[in-house]
Amino acid sequence: MLQYVQRRVQDAGDAEEIATETFAVAWTKPTSSDVSLPWLFVTARNKIKAYHRQSARRRAVEDRVGDEAMTAAAGLSQIDRLSVRDAVASLTRREREVIMLTYWEQLPADEVAEVLGCAAGSVWTALSRGRAKLRKILGDDVPAEAGVNDG
């Protein structure tokens, strides 16, 4: 099953997660007779489709974050705007999403936590780490217009 998924999903970690989720769904079936090899392949295929849909949405959000970072950094030089975009892109998915929801969508930590399905403390941790990474990449004097100030 893992090889089947790996041939369809480039990221090895994501492929392992999808294969694991496939077997987790099988485990919840009332009887083992409900689970067959074709059923496992159909379930994995559905998980892979969902993964690709989610990846497409994530790429769209990342592109939007990059575009918004560029717009927010409009007062900066072209090189600085590219630096901001690349810096935001270098963050983890969670950090990027927390930064975007906090600064671009202007949500408080408890609402960001609700959107992401996590604790507010996790939001603060991701926000702190994201800001630190941006400061390290861009330097300590990041302009407020770049959308990465300390709020």
Architecture overview:
By secondary structure, this protein is mostly helical. It has seven helices and no strands. The radius of gyration is 20 Å and the shape is elongated. It starts with a helix and ends in a 13-residue tail after the last helix.
Based on Cα principal axes, name the global outline: elongated
What is the CA-atom radius of gyration, in angstroms? Answer: 20 Å
How would you characterize the largest beta sheet? none
What is the number of helical segments per DSSP (H or I, 4+ residues)? 7
H/E order of the elements?
Answer: HHHHHHH
Helical residues, percent: over 70%
State the oligomer.
Answer: single chain
Give the class from helix and strand content and strand pairing.
mainly alpha
User: Which percent band covers the strand fraction?
Assistant: under 5%
Count of β-strands? 0
Low-confidence stretches: 142-151
Distance between the termini: 47 Å
Summarize the structure.
The chain is 72% helix and 0% strand. With 151 residues, it is an all-alpha fold.
List keywords for this structure.
151 residues; mainly alpha; 7 helices; 72% helix; 0% strand; disordered C terminus
